From TrEMBL:
One Pfam family, short name: M20_dimer
Keywords: Cobalt, Hydrolase, Metal-binding, Metalloprotease, Protease, Zinc
GO MF assignments: metal ion binding; metallodipeptidase activity
InterPro entries: Peptidase_M20 (IPR002933), Peptidase_M20_dimer (IPR011650), Peptidase_M20C (IPR001160)
Catalysed reactions listed for this entry: Hydrolysis of dipeptides, preferentially hydrophobic dipeptides including prolyl amino acids
One GO cellular component term: cytosol
CDD domains assigned: M20_pepD (cd03890)
Name of the protein in its database record: Cytosol non-specific dipeptidase
Family listed: Belongs to the peptidase M20C family.
Superkingdom: Bacteria
Stretches of the chain forming a coiled coil according to its record: none
Keyword flag Phosphoprotein: no
Amino acid sequence: MSTEVRQLEPQALWNKFADLNAVPRPSKKEARVIAFMKNFGENLGLETLVDEVGNVIIKKPASSGMENRTTIVMQSHLDMVHQKNNDTNFDFDTQGIEMYVDGDWVRAKGTTLGADNGLGVATIMAILESDTIQHPAIEALFTIDEETGMTGAMGLKGGLLSGGILLNLDTEEDDEIGVGCAGGVDVTATRNYNLEETPEFKIGYEITVKGLQGGHSGMQIHEGLGNANKIMNRVLFDGFENFGLRISEINGGSLRNAIPRESHAIVAIDAIHEGAFIMEMALITNTIQKELKTMEPDLVIEVVKCETPEHIMDLGVQEGLTRAIYAAVNGVYRMSADIPGLVETSNNIARIIVKDGDIHIGCLTRSSVESSKNDLANTLRATFELTGCEVEVSGDYPGWTPNMDSAILKVMDKIYENLNGEKAHVAACHAGLECGILGQNYPNMDMISFGPTIKGAHSPDERAQISSVQKYWKFVLEILKEIPVR
């Protein structure tokens, strides 16, 4: 399937993308892709180093006649979000991504594609390898672990880079030039609970929420997509209120930056209420499906009889848990008062695990305003602490404040209009980009973010638009020619 992708234009970029996608590269398990990138740089005879946290830096001198231009840093992250459909048999730790062409799109077979941020990485690789592309001196920065903590960007020390301009290739709309982004923080609630033996008069049911689109918890948080964890809690709450449903296990969501697509629960109900319970579950399923039919037409809520679980949650803890999840903010918390249409602050209830006496609830809170981010984190902390949870606020990373006077922004804005006959959309985004973090150790670096159109990032529906990649590639080549003189 990659053979078909390799024939696409520009071949230099798509071939590097195919090479990269053959290397497993889950976040926090990047040893293979680090070695791959190190070998790539060294085989080109370019100065290549791996810093102490695993970021790879490859330096290439300027093309002839471009020596007086400002040195640029071209930056993308090596890791990718790993999500797959429930019926897809795939091991991200050992297998390369299986790609195919679908009209004007490149997709993966039942998994995330890795276009986020593999197309950025492939772009830089193609430029480093070329002996015909005009460019100033380049410092290629390939960071690790962007998707699960941005520890690569956080660990990059000052003094390793000398570039005055940073081109971050991690934006997902080809008509957009990014000048700012949200910061984020993890809010994690945990507690223990007592296991109770399930009474003999109870029977077991497995409830499954599936068929949701999922997606990027920053870029798509405002779209009204269903969150499997919130939907499951609504079903469980209804079952408890009407029939005394008792929870044995919950396993919902996966990654902190992905809107949850699936959730599974094992519950117990009184056998005498079985018929009424099935009817009530059908009613609430129909209600939720009607509410979400526009955005989530494939939503399925299954209620299937199973073996009666041996243990159920302590009743008091269950009541507190379901109420806390109901009360916890999910989705948009506040829109920006300064930038029309921009989500300022949001939260994603990303992961819920209830099993064997332990509760784990993981959230990712984002905001472009530091005080608002802290306010929402405290709101969540208070919500979960009221039900007896211990709450850890960790992994805090800063946003990127827009600089509308940026010199490289003015250059790129003009180039885009000349190439496309219309103005680019200059905007901040609600995703977390590494620019804000990198700017802490490189405060004088002029930063910008752009990229080709990628849809469905962080979900198995991720796809990259072929015509957009061609448009973006032309844009990149023109930018390299027009980098200002030092």
